[in-house]
Amino acid sequence: MTTQLSFGERVQFYRERRGLYQWQLGELVNRSEDWVYRVEAGRIPVNNVKMLADLADALRVHVEDLQGAPTLLGDHDDHKGSVPAIRAALMHSRRLAGALYDNREPPRLERLRVEVNDAWELYQSSAYAKLAARLPGLLADVRMATHGHLVRQNRTEALRLFALTCHVTAAFLRKLGETNLAWIAADQGDVAATESGDPAIMLALRRCVAHVQLGADHAAEAVSVTLDAANDLPPGWWESSPAALSLYGTLFLNGAVAAARLRDRALAEDMIAKAQAAADRLGRDANEMWTSFGPSNVEIHRLALALEFEDVQVAVDIAPGVRPAGLPPERRARARLDVARAYGEAGRTDDAVDHLKRAFRTAPEQMRAHEFARDLGRRLHERSRRRDAHELALGLGVLT
After folding, report:
1. Are 42 and 81 in the same domain?
2. Which domain does 147 fall in, by range?
3. Pair 116, 128 in one domain
4. Three-state secondary structure of the chain
5. For residue range 58-97, what is the model confidence (pLDDT) as tens digits?
6. What pTM does this model have?
7. Residue 192: inside a domain, yes or no?
């Protein structure tokens, strides 16, 4: 019913459905009546995740209801990557999965290692349709491997691969807004990681759990998981290898964003400082265990924190120093989007268009599914007479 409405119109629709006046909604989210009026009129954006969550809570809807985000992949016909197919593989039910588990033999671990790596490369390349087509079969294979390999060493490796597959599945499902299903994937992966006893895999899945919690607007829980995961590490382990540094640093990058959602600036700054310490010790941008971690990703998250705290000038000051050229497409696109958001908030329309175009060229599937990108594209189209701003809005699917 509300899919064709603008963001402001959706806020008004749900506000009126709740029987609230604009001043009442303003009080619920600690804003003025005039602020609510301007949001509903489309005069100001709401691209702060904490405010989106507060609005959704006040209106008693999901964030996705306010965003009106498009479905990234169709769940119909014979689409191998449909959400139901992934759900069936996660639920490990032969009745629901149909032929997915029929006549499958426990696969060789060497082949599974290659396939898990390929899945992560597809995710980091933002090749979501291709990834979705592979996940159901890969989930079935790695699950069967945990039951089919009984020798201790092989079973441990199978558990590691199962945990990593659940991790990439959860990250992907979070992109689609399927947070409940993402939680199932993260939880199953966390159990397998714990059983494997591998500290690196355990930390990776702890971060995955916190990442999904953050996506489900459970910032306090995400902060708690972050701190507990760090406290549970063996003394000095985080400095033991490039992978350990990367996992530790990425854990605190996610934790810093969660702290910002709680408006805890001191905790957010403490966590970003811990990530910076890991990046300084690592000394370079790397992609250990698909973390995309290093000094560049820390700077990207400093920009994200400034946007979370609505420190527009700070964000604009940081933006020129964000240089994600050596990172995977998924990270590069998100960085360019946040730079575009900073310039858009500062009224630098041409700069915002240029960076949003770069984000879209880098990862079109990702940007079409990202409400911040779509909302910014819509607003830039309204502000600018540039032909490429119109073409960008068309590409993002925000013009009817």
Report:
1. no
2. 71-197
3. yes
4. CCCCCCHHHHHHHHHHHHCCCHHHHHHHCCCCHHHHHHHHCCCCCCCCHHHHHHHHHHHCCCHHHHHCCCCCCCCCCCCCCCHHHHHHHHHCCHHHHHHHCCCCCCCCHHHHHHHHHHHHHHHHCCCHHHHHHHHHHHHHHHHHHHHHCCCHHHHHHHHHHHHHHHHHHHHHHHHHCCHHHHHHHHHHHHHHHHHHCCHHHHHHHHHHHHHHHHHCCCHHHHHHHHHHHHHCCCCCHHHCCHHHHHHHHHHHHHHHHHHHHCCCHHHHHHHHHHHHHHHHHHCCCCCHHHCCCCHHHHHHHHHHHHHHCCCHHHHHHHHHHCCCCCCCHHHHHHHHHHHHHHHHHCCCHHHHHHHHHHHHHHCHHHHHCCHHHHHHHHHHHHHCCCHHHHHHHHHHCCCC
5. 988 877 677 665 445 544 444 445 677 888 888 865 444 4
6. 0.81
7. yes
